[in-house]
Amino acid sequence: QKILEKYRDLFKLQWEGVIGNAPSQAEWEQLLTNCSAFLFYGMERFMSHVLLNWLVAMNIPNCRLVILLDLVRSQQRHQRTANSDIHK
Its domain of life (predicted)? Predict the structure, then answer.
């Protein structure tokens, strides 16, 4: 969020996305068909948000780069997990 706020004016017309709740299937389709690059960064699996047969059938010729960072953990979450595991 901090990075988006810092550079919002530089890339205002080029960046579009969703922060927070996952978009609907229609919103995913709109985002993927209109992008030249796609970045997913989330604590859950990307494929839990989209239907596999829908994704495979999509025609996204303008999307040249896809980066999927799923199952991401924050430092705080990692520390909580490590502390919990010590006592097991």
Answer: Eukaryota
Q: Are 65 and 38 in contact (CB under 8 A)?
A: yes
Report whether 21 contacts 44 (CB < 8 A).
no
Between CA 79 and CA 87, with CA 85 as vertex, the angle to 5 degrees is 115
Mean pLDDT, range 28-40, rounded to an integer:
84
Tell me: the pLDDT tens digits for 42-52?
A: 888 888 888 88
What is the pLDDT of the chain when averaged over all its residues?
Answer: 79
Please check whether residue 15 is in contact with residue 4, taking contact to mean a CB–CB distance below 8 angstroms.
yes
